[in-house]
Amino acid sequence: MTERYRAVLIGCGRMGATIDDEVQDRPDRHLWLPYSHAAAAVACERTELVAVSDVVVEKAEAIRQRYEVAVCYTDYREMIEKEKPDIVCIATRPATHSEITVFAAEHGVKGIYCEKPLCGSMAEADAMVAAVEEYGVKFNYGTQRRYIPVYRKMRELADAGELGTVQAVIVQDGVTAALWGLTHGADMMLLLAGDAEIEYVQGTIVCEDEDWEGNRLNVDPGIASGYVRFANGVHGYTTAGSGSEFEICGSEGKLRTFNNAMSYQFRKASGVRYMLEEQAFPEVPCESGTVNGIRDIAEALDTGQETKGPVHLARRSQEMVMGFIESHRLGGVRVSLPMENRELYVGRENW
Questions:
Q1: Rounded to an integer, what distance in angstroms lies between the CA atom of residue 334 and that of residue 199?
Q2: Based on C-alpha coordinates, what's the Rg of the chain?
Q3: pTM over 0.70
Q4: Residues with Cβ < 8 Å from 152, sequence gap 6 or more?
Q5: Torsion over CA of 92, 170, 166 and 201, rounded to 10 degrees?
Q6: Model pLDDT for residues 14-59, shown as the tens digit of each residue
Q7: Domains (ranges, CATH) in the chain?
Q8: Strand partners, 206
Q9: In what order do the strands lie in the sheet with 71-73?
Q10: In this structure, how many other beta carbons lie within 10 angstroms of the beta carbon of residue 126?
Q11: What is the structure's pLDDT at 143?
């Protein structure tokens, strides 16, 4: 019999437990549901949601009842120590992600599914990576598209050479908030560029001078533009064009999603210069990215293999975004990765 893993939820807010309500009537609901951490942990055949926690007792109790969970807590530390979960879903605000990840790793948790944004600084990200790697924790990042079949198929087609040499990955996500929104675009750019190392980035952001307090930016700024130079030669771009839409451009073809992956296009070289011919995009199943992300942790625990969204890749996409902000702070210069300024902090007070 396949083992079921004991899962708990930390943070009973929107992404933790209630965002499913927002998409129930949307035309793209089939791409996302089950969406929240709680709904996905209940739906996943590999996990049993045994406890939830939130600092607001009424919220914790409401979510306990909603998902028919046995017990709720207001202290995540007490929950981890008493329940001894295999997998922890972290859906709090980003200011607490690092400390929760480190505590969970140090107290026997085997797997972590962490909501985006990863954290507020690269120093916090470094602490998360160190703890996860020291204790051998299986980690996935809550950028759900990484686990959705259509995007996995795009990466598979590119890896198989169907586009020739991959030249560029383009993200159209609008002037979206750096950590609250572009974390999705950054992770997709990374995935579609082959999860390659990053040499340097450049970017421009939207903020006011008074938003800065020394080495801290007290807002989550809009990213107006960003360029990424990957070590494998791929060029990455995030633009102010509305989205979320993603494109891989190769020497022999292109792949693109439309309307947040409601449809997609595959074109290949026709033999006539500058002309590409439409191709049938391979059939892919419609599956929840959140469920797949949690299931992938369970399968990694079964086999000992790496997950699809491991902590070092989560840090890499986070550093891409932080690099755009640092580039703007320094007057638009190229910022080599790894960044020297590991203490740059982005986020509102008490975020």
A1: 10
A2: 20
A3: yes
A4: 146, 284
A5: -70
A6: 999 999 999 999 999 988 999 999 999 999 999 999 999 999 999 9
A7: 5-145+290-310 (3.40.50.720), 149-285+315-346 (3.30.360.10)
A8: 222
A9: 71-73, 47-53, 5-10, 87-90, 111-114, 138-141
A10: 16
A11: 97
Structure tokens at 83: 């329940």
DSSP assignment string, 269-296: E-SSTT-EEEEPPPP-----HHHHHHHH
Q: What three-state secondary structure class fits 223? A: strand
Residue 17, exposed/middle/buried by CB under 10 A (0-12, 13-18, 19+)?
buried
Compute how many other C-beta atoms are within 10 angstroms of the C-beta atom of residue 197: 11
- Residue 110's nearest CA partner among 297, 328, 275 is 297
Q: Give the pLDDT of residue 271.
A: 85
For the residues 114-134, what does the mean pLDDT come to? 98
Query: Do residues 189 and 320 make contact, with C-beta atoms less than 8 angstroms apart?
Result: yes
Pairing, β 245-250 against β 87-90: unpaired
Between CA 73 and CA 51 the distance in angstroms is 8
Tokens for 170? 């383009």
Calpha distance 350→211 (Å, rounded)? 15
